Amino acid sequence: MYKGQKVVVVLPAYNAAQTLEITYQEIPFDLVDEVILCDDCSRDNTVDVARELGIQHIIRHENNKGYGGNQKSLYNKALEIGGDIVIMLHPDYQYTPKLIPAMVNILGEGLYPAVLGSRILGMGALKGGMPLYKYVANRFLTFTQNLLINYKLSEYHTGYRAFHRELLEGIDFNANDDDFVFDNEMLSQIVYAGFDIAEVTCPTKYFEEASSINFRRSMKYGFGVLRVSLQHRLNKWGLLKLARYQKPS
Fold first, then answer.
1. Radius of gyration of the chain (CA)
2. Most buried among 65, 118, 142, 228, by the most CB within 10 A?
3. CB–CB of 49/69 below 8 Å?
4. Residue 179 and residue 157: Cα distance in Å, rounded?
5. pTM (2 d.p.)
6. Strands 114-118 and 57-60
């Protein structure tokens, strides 16, 4: 708990058996109340490892629903069990759980309703081994997104995110795509709804066991990001009326 607010960590898992334990062991359980893992039809024994670790809430998709579909299951479950502060932590150990206290403090004190762990602030991405082409693409996409969305973030592509309950209940994240572009659709919704976003410097690690999308899927993701940003701007101008920007009923 943080000042009477329930803290929930959600883990979107896919073939995370090799890195789940080291990630889980760094979670600060003096602060975190509950952990939810959603296994998106892994080919390894991720679920078995999760059970051995004693993770109480385990969701298993019988068919692969994608990264966005995984997050939908996690956020819905977090709200169902009464989570007030919800932190998405990748179980592949690319992002350190040691930043959880800082994120919880920002949300719990009511300073911001959303916090992103930025790999770009402090040059953490390149130091952590991010491929140069991904870094350049990240910079180009973020610059374009800031222009179209009319916001200012150091990056829109980090997977380390934390949200307060009021934000998750204030946007229709279930209306978003089930693939990787879900992340950008959600940030677009957050900005569109008038919520502010904080960023904290986040070191990251690239290594063989860490999850990553290949070049072809990276290209698909990049075009998807540009599409979302353009749709955001057109929706603001009243030229589109997309369901994902409507407040949930």
1. 17
2. 228
3. no
4. 13
5. 0.92
6. unpaired
